Amino acid sequence: MIINKKKSYVLNIIDILSENYKFAGCTLNFSNPFELLVATILSAQCKDERINKITEILFKKYKNIKEYAEADVSVIENYIRSAGFFRNKAKNIVGSAKLIMSEYNGNVPQTMKKLLKLPGVARKTANVVLSSAFKKIEGIVVDTHVMRISNLLELTENNNSVRIEKDLMKIVPQKYWIKLPFLMQILGRRICKARNQNHVICPLNSICPKQLSSK
Length: 215
Description:
Layout: H1 3-20, H2 33-42, H3 48-61, H4 65-69, H5 73-80, H6 86-103, H7 112-115, H8 123-134, H9 144-152, H10 161-171, H11 179-190, H12 209-214
Helix pairs in contact: 2-3, 2-6, 2-8, 5-6, 9-11
């Protein structure tokens, strides 16, 4: 599919999903940028519902970045154990807090370059923080839902998240860079699941290449 056709095609996808999912947005609970950073670090390979249960308790224990920077990693591990990979996540949370205190005057940085210097932060996490905490657009969030659905819809032929992001940035108008991942995430959670995809009620069934090829 050539670039111009892909641009028209992806706009059609956005229109259809926007009509069906009018209130698409971040499903992680947070009250400040650092809480969102923590929640996003925790969310790797774990459902947002589980993370929100964990952070409901964690955010009451630690009130600010300084408290996280001074926290005992083993104590945080106990709070986040059910998130999986809890040792690395706890180390990255404390490490990020320490770096923010020492290098950024206690303020979560607002650029991709600086966010990527924080322990445990890759482009997905940085994009989440920039878009949902600061309403800044430097890229497109690519999580497992976005990766899978972008391939199903033939918006990319890559399986690497960074390459998928670059492919999407070429065909998606920048004003939709924040919105598109939210739309794909809802579709992926509700209908277009990794297993047991419900094609009958999928809002994209009339334009989905997988469905069209099976007819």
